[in-house]
Structure formats: structure tokens, C-alpha cells
Amino acid sequence: MNAPLKQHLIDPEICIRCYTCEEACPIDAITHNDDNVVVDASKCNFCMDCISPCPTGSIDNWRVVATPYSVEEQFEWDELPDQEDITADDGASGDGVIEALDDAVAALLAEAHAGAGGRAKAPASAAKPTVNLFTISKPTTATVQGNYRLTAEDSDGDVRHIILNLGATAFPVLEGQSIGITAPGTDADGKPHLPRLYSISSPRDGERPNYNNLSLTVKREDQGVCSNFVCDLKAGDEVQVTGPFGATFLMPNDPEAKLLMICTGTGAAPFRAMTMRRQRTDPTDDGMLTLVFGARTPDDLPYFGPLAKMPDRFLAKHFAFSRLPGQPKQYVQDQLRAQTASVTPLLQDPKAHIYVCGLKAMEQGVDEALADVARSAGLEWTDIRDAMRNDGRYHVETY
Amino acid sequence: MLDLINVSYDTQIPNNVGLSQDKKVLKALEKWHPGYINWWNDLIPDDFQKSLVYLRTAVSVDPKGWAKFDYVKMPEYRWGILLAPEVEDRRIPFGEHAGEKAWQEIPGEYRSMLRRLVVIQGDTEPASVEQQRFLGLTAPSLYDLRNLFQVNVEEGRHLWAMVYLLQKYFGRDGREEADDLLRRNSGSEEAPRMLGAFNEETPDWLSFFMFTYFTDRDGRMQLESLAQSGFDPLSRTCRFMLTEEAHHMFVGETGVGRVIQATVDAMQKAGITDPYDINKIRDLGVIDLPTMQKKLNLHYTLSLDLFGGEVSTNAANAFNAGIKGRFQELKIDDDHKLHGATYPVSQVVNGVIQKVDAPALTAVNMRLRDDYVKDAAGGVGRWNRALKKAGVEFQFEMPHEAFNRQIGAFAGVPADPSGEIISQEAWDAKRNEWLPTKEDGAFIQSLMQPCYEPGQYASWISAPKVGIDNKPGDFEYVQLHMA
Predict the structure, then answer these.
(1) How confident is the model at residue A86 (pLDDT cuts 50, 70, 90)?
(2) pTM of this prediction?
(3) What is the CATH code for A140-245?
(4) Of the candidates A14, A16, A48, which has its C-beta nearest B249's C-beta?
(5) Cis before B203 (ω within 30)
(6) B68 and chain A: CB distance < 8 Å anywhere?
(7) In the structure, what pLDDT confidence band is assigned to residue A231 with cuts at 50, 70 and 90?
């Protein structure tokens, strides 16, 4: 079987057959018959020269396919086919859906999602993600719009809120997806650095709605080549970006879905995105979101200020601080146990989704705490977990 | 070295033709410029001039640079002179000079022929802006308002493109012609625009969409044939204009399509299945399909007239001379000289419409019109597909080429939309079933109320499927200046 690949397609319902793209294509990969204008997958090299001249936006469509649609097939279309659920028998992502086409990235994500204890699945009502529009060999350029420190000046943790502007480049993202950033230069072996993945911390319509931008939440690591590069970026700098990546750690579109979000440190990024998405779509729906957030101290907790201002009725917040002077160490698992009364119903609610994001080290503690909560209600956590995961309602992304 | 891809802003007039080193032409254009700005300022209502419009401007003529979107006030739009990149060692693709090196200067013997073609093309550009000048006041949405203004500023730029050719290559005559392009005015008694269809007003938005679909498509076919020209600067100018013209096609096709969609949706919601239940449908605040068919009949036939006579020695001369080619000349598989070739031309013979073989050389207008009909039929087919999908039993039809014609072989011939020649009385009796009436116009006019809320659309038109520049539904495409 062929490895899955990204195919460039034109939406026949929106295309007006002006053939401007055909004129613009430098390698004659675009052709037409009396019905449709189509891209020949065997020729297209993703140079993107055809994208901006298109007056309709019909040109900007992509599908991940096992076997590309032939020119003849596309001539017959009245509308674009849906994105099929592709399973890669031999891909790095195991037998799951395609989270990334770049093998190195797919491997990273497979590892990040391993903590769920089985094959990851997207929520049934999640929007279809666009995956790997920009690859390691063909990244796109984003411009830094701002870089703000989120942690207190005297905190030794330096966490940054970074806003990237994609300009005129279509870069469709969903909450929970990641992008890849490649630090310039080469590693000790003289090879280019591999991209590092960062979760997007803004919702799908942008950090600011209608502006083609997105935000990241990045912590400076002492020896981290990429995190130092990213944390040092200044407004106006340009960065090479790949992605978007990830096709399972996504939020449900169903407005009745309840979300329990458990995170530590910069693991908060996707939850900021999901919460903001709900704020924009269902701002008056109370009691649907719960956040369990662990950090060393309040000064060290990204977005502590804005979070504190968010009403508890919209987002129930439970903070766990492990380094508060004169206080016992608290971890997210302790908060989960303390909230047994509110967490237990979520384990039995078919509309509830649980997300865990942060350091690998949190996995075991969270797993045990949820098992305790389940046990207190006479339930078996591993059964619940497996059922929820197969239902697309249990998601782990740890690194 | 001259940068001929990126637009340079070192003169008042953005350009990629090295204007700053071409003092004579620069001076002539700078002299023409204030007249143009006056023309624009007198034309578009003042509040719109002060509004911020989300427009596309070219910053270079290569594919990546020519669609830069940003808010701009229209009088500050960077109208400029943009030629598609020069093709190395380009050859004249057709006519007696086929295979010779393309001309960078005008051969003396073709000067007046070329000037006339450039002037006629140039005259249509400001004319359509004049025809559409008041539409903004009744825009069905900010999205449509923005699209109208995009069309308008680009027609303005096309005028610049033609004026540049006139100023650069035609000396004093060219300068006078350039001035006259601003002197003539659509619908004017004393100095009307040169072509009939460009003196008709565009009274409402359905007319605007039909105009951009059918009439601008004629413009596209003309530009396509001029883009084949052996006179290289004309070819390069037209090639770049075509990329802009595509937006106008888009506005027309999706505009009409969205009007149809609103009608179909309203009918379904009200449980009306008969598309001819006109009064009931109109009561829903949408335009009934039979009235749209009448508008189609009118705009399509007016546009067919723009192609001129089916058999034309002028057209033959222009082809022979290598000045104006055929649609997609390079993709046609023949000798590109048309020696001894024939082409079937429609004519009335003994009261019956027949195809008669004519020398292909004199029939290039006919051929271009046939290509146009085929091209125009594509979008009509897509509208029909949407009707079929919605389960509405109605299909739009393009009338026969003989119907309602004022120019060419069918001028004054009383043919019905199916191409049957009937008596003049019978034709007159049926006229109101085929072409829009005053009442139809008054009804459409009654729907023309502005809708300026972001993301909102007037009742008679549905929202677009995709935003401009990938923008979401409630994007504020025009930030209106409210006096």
C-alpha cells in the first residue's frame, strides 16, 4: 500500500472555471475539461503559485488520501468528496488515523498520545482537522506579532505567550492541534534540527477573531535549542512553521458536551483554546467546563490572572500548587480526589470528555486518582477509560 | 537593473514598467492623473470614498504577490500599470507574421488598427464603473459592497492599463484618446460610451450580477484574444488584466447563484413548489425564477451584440496582421493563418436560420462568440445543477443567438428564444414574457434596500459559501464612513 499523501483539490461547487490557476501553474499540473478544473496529483509540487490568483477560494482544498484521485475521477465530480478516515497500516502512527504525514512528527504524536492506553480517536462531533498542510520540506512562514511573558518576573520559570501571524496563508487549525517550529541552524551532527511541536493555545478563528493569527504557550528550557529560539523571538521576526498536526486530541463541536481538562504547566495551551472556543460559541452555557491545573506556585502558572477573572459558573477551576511556602505539596491528582463529588458524574455521563495534557510524569498520578474516584462509586476505571477512549472521549497528550 | 516583477513606488504611479526612467511617458501620465482622480471622486458617493474597504492590491505580478488584501480608502487605492512578465523570445502566434519575433514597438502600418482596438477596450473600463456608480447605496451586504468596489477599482486600473499603452506608443493621438476616455460618459447624450451595452444603466444588483456574468465575460474573451497579440506590450497588459477579470466573473456567477439560492430556500420554507407562482414567491421578498430568466435573456443578448458582425473584414484584418487572435490561440491545433479554412456562420437564408460555411478568416468574431457561448453556458449549467439539487422544477435556458439582437445577421429579425422566426406582431405580443418589463424592474427595485450589518444579507440573496481571503462570515468587509 502507498503511504498516505496530501492531495491538492479544487472545489467544483465554488470554482467558476476562469482557468486563472491553470495559467498561473508553472509546471502545467492544472488542467480542465468541459466540466471541471482539476489538479494532477502526479505533477503538483505544492508550490502554491495558484493559491492567491484564485478569485473564489475554491483552489484551497486538501485531502489526505491513500491513493490520489485521478484527473478523470475529478472531472466527474459535482462536489468534493469528504475527507476519508485514513488508516495507515504501515505508518509511524500505528493503526490510528493520520495525525501527521511527516514521519518524525507522527512518531512524536504517537508517543504523546500513548498515555491514553490504546488507539486514540477523535470526538464524534469534532470538526474534520486539516493535517500537515505544510511539511518539513515545505514549511510556511509566520510573522511574530507579539511575545509576552506569562509568569511573574521573579519566577524562575519563563513561560511565554507568543502570537504568530500567518498573513495571507490559509492555515486552518482546530483547538488541540499543534504546529511544528524548526529552530534555525544544525545539531551536533550537522543535520538540521527536527521540528518541535507546540500546542496552539488560541481557538480556530484566531487569537483575535478574523485575524489570521494563532498563539502558542512556550516554556523556556535550559538546554532547549528550540524553546530558547521561540522564547527569544521578537515582534516582526519570521519563523518557519509546519503543520497543523494532530487529528484526535480535538474538542467536540457538540455544545452539550462537558469537558474535564487536566493539565500541568504549558499543558494548559489546548485548554485555553478550547475554553476560548466555548466562550465565543456558547458564552452563556454554564457548568460545562472544569479545569484542574497544576503548577509550582500561582506566579508560575501560565494565564493565572486571566483565569482567576473567569467566572466559576462558566469554568470550574481547581488549582494544585506544589511549592507554596508553608503549605503541603498539592498535585493535580490530589485535586481530582478532592473533587470526587463533581468528577464522579462525569465518568458516567455519555456527553463528558476528559483531556489530560502536560508532562509525562503526571500520567500515572492522574490515572490512579481517576481510578480512586471511580472506585468510590463502585466503578472500574480501566473499563470506563477504554470505553471513553473508543468513544473519542478520553484524550491524553503528554511529553 | 530594472525590476520588472515587483511594483515600484518611486513615482506617483505604481508600475512595473520602469516609469521613473521613462520621463516623457511619466510626464504625460502625471498630467492625465488628476483628471482621473477627479473622474473617480465625482463618480462614487462621498461616504463610500471615505470608508475603509477590504481590497486586494497587486504588489507584484508574479502569482505570490498580486493578491495583497488590506483595508484602503478607494481614492487612495494604488492604481498602477502592471504588465505580466515578458516571455523570453516570444513569437507572434498567428496571422501573416506567425513565427516572427513579437513586436516591442508598433509597426507603422498597423498603428491605427491597434489604436482603435485599445480605445474600444479602454472605453468599456470606466463605462462600467459609471453604470454601477449608485449600486453601493443599495448593497445587500458589506460582502457584496466590497466585491462591487473591488470590481470598480480594478476596472479603473484597466483604464490605466489602456491609457499607458496609448500614452507610451501612440504619441499625440494617444494622448488625445486618453483624454477622451475621461470625457465620454456612460448614457451621456453628447458623449456616450462607444458600445451600446455600456450606455445602459445598471439599475439594481441582479442587473449588476447578470452584467458581470454575461457582459464582463465578453470583456474577458476580448482580453483573451488581445493577450495573443503580436504587439507584446498589449499582450502582457491583457494577460495581467485577465487575472483581475476573473474576480469579476466570480462576482457574477456567485452573485446570480446566491440570488437563486435565496429564492429556492424561501420557496421551500414556505412550501411553494411551483416556480411560476410568481406573486406568492415575490411576497417572500425574493426574486422569482421566471423573472431571473428574463434578466438572463436581456443581458445575454446584449452581450452577444458586443461581438460585432458574424462576418467581418475588420476582424479578418486584425487577425491577419497578428494584432488580435482567437480565444486560447495557442491551444488551437491548426496553421494559425487560416489559409483556405472555413468556419460555419449562422445566417438567415430565405427566412430560415442556417449555418453557412464562411472563410474562417472573416469569421473570427463568430468563432469568439461561439467560444463565449460555451463558456457562459458552463455557469448556467451550474445554476441549474443547484436547482436540481434543491428539487425545484425549473431550468435556466440560454436563448437562441438570433433572439433579441441589434447587431449582426439577426439584427431586427423577430426570432423567439428557441430560434424560430415569427411575425413581428407575434414577437411584440410575447415580448413581456421574454424580457423584463417595467413592473419586473419596479419589483426588483423594491427589494433594493441596503443591508450594512456585518454577516447579514438582504432577504433576496443568500450568504456566500466562502469568504473573501478566507475571512469568516461576520467579517466587516467595509468599515463604513457614516457622515
Answers:
(1) low
(2) 0.72
(3) 2.40.30.10
(4) A16
(5) no
(6) yes
(7) very high
